[in-house]
């Protein structure tokens, strides 16, 4: 029997290509949480390339200031404002919107990208660990969304929200009970608020990334990839490749654009069909503790 020919999905256009017409976001203000690193910065870059004024928010001032310089250098970018913010604090969230309005105007687009996560067997999660992830990923997203919605409702203006989600909001996430529960809540906000705020011109969508390696990946995530498939992440994707961060940015700029005004309440998964992959014969079940290299469970005193 001859070997099958497997090509996978084509590579994306080169970095610097735009998915929408030049200037699509000129005169628009886009606020991205977690915009100082990783996928948040990649998303912000694609809005900048299309002419947006950016406001990037993050808890880490040093990374945020470096990202501001990098994003300001993107061809086509408008003004770039950096705001140090812990999105778990509603007063600080309000201050970030005040700063955005003072610098560029009320944000027209909000990208809720900031989140927290780390792998752990559910039985090992402490109350503080649970709260840390849920408070940032779900409650922080809600505080940002609420502030955006209330300001637009008061002003009588429309806008667009894009919540970054995760596919285990549908499937559950063994090893990530805290994050999966929080992301399920984020997905529910998309579907709820799209109906509540649609009459006022506010669209709400979700965007789920697959595997998009980038320089700012945490050691936990990078280590998990190596344990699962040392040096072979491409071969474990139906697309036979991983994603390029700019591909997620292109999806975000579309969802928030004038070309997607009738798309709301939808969560778009950009992962090369990886989350839908199933084996003809299911693989052997390996407990999460074993996958994470943990020993037998021992209750804390």
From TrEMBL:
One of its GO terms (biological process) is fatty acid biosynthetic process. InterPro entries: KR_dom, NAD(P)-bd_dom_sf, Peroxisomal_t2-enoyl-CoA_red, SDR_fam. Signal peptide: none annotated. Keywords: Fatty acid biosynthesis, Fatty acid metabolism, Lipid biosynthesis, Lipid metabolism, NADP, Oxidoreductase, Peroxisome, Phosphoprotein. Residues 28-173 form the Ketoreductase domain. It is found in: Peroxisome. Pfam families: adh_short_C2. It comes from the Bacteria. GO terms for molecular function: trans-2-enoyl-CoA reductase (NADPH) activity. Its EC number is 1.3.1.38. Pathway: Lipid metabolism. Participates in chain elongation of fatty acids. Catalyzes the reduction of trans-2-enoyl-CoAs of varying chain lengths from 6:1 to 16:1, having maximum activity with 10:1 CoA. Has no 2,4-dienoyl-CoA reductase activity. This is Peroxisomal trans-2-enoyl-CoA reductase. It comes from Streptomyces venezuelae. The lineage of its organism: Bacteria, Bacillati, Actinomycetota, Actinomycetes, Kitasatosporales.
């Amino acid at each position: 029997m001859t070997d099958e020919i497997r090509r996978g999905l084509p590579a994306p256009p080169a970095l610097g290509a735009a998915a929408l017409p030049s200037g699509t976001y000129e005169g628009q203000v886009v606020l991205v949480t977690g915009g100082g690193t990783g996928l948040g910065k990649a998303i912000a870059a694609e809005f900048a390339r299309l002419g947006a004024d950016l406001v990037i928010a993050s808890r880490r001032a040093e990374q945020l200031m470096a990202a501001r310089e990098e994003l300001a250098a993107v061809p086509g970018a408008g003004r770039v404002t950096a705001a140090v913010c812990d999105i778990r604090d509603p007063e600080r969230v309000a201050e970030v919107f005040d700063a955005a309005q003072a610098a560029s105007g009320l944000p027209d687009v909000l990208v809720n990208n900031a989140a927290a996560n780390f792998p752990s067997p559910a039985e090992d999660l402490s109350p503080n660990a649970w709260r840390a992830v849920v408070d940032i990923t779900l409650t922080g997203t809600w505080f940002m969304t609420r502030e955006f919605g209330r300001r637009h409702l008061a002003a009588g203006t429309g806008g667009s929200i894009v919540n970054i989600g995760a596919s285990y909001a549908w499937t559950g996430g063994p090893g990530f009970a805290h994050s999966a529960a929080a992301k399920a809540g984020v997905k529910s906000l998309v579907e709820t608020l799209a109906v509540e705020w649609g009459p006022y011109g506010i669209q709400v969508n979700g965007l789920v990334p697959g595997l998009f390696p980038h320089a700012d990946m945490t050691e936990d995530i990078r280590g998990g990839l190596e344990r699962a498939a040392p040096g072979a992440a491409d071969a474990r994707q139906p697309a036979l490749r991983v994603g390029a961060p700019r591909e997620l940015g292109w999806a975000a700029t579309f969802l928030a654009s004038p070309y997607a005004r009738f798309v709301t309440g939808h969560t778009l998964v950009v992962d090369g069909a990886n989350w839908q992959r199933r084996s003809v014969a299911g693989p052997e079940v390996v407990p999460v503790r074993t996958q994470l290299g943990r020993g037998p469970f021992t209750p804390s005193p």
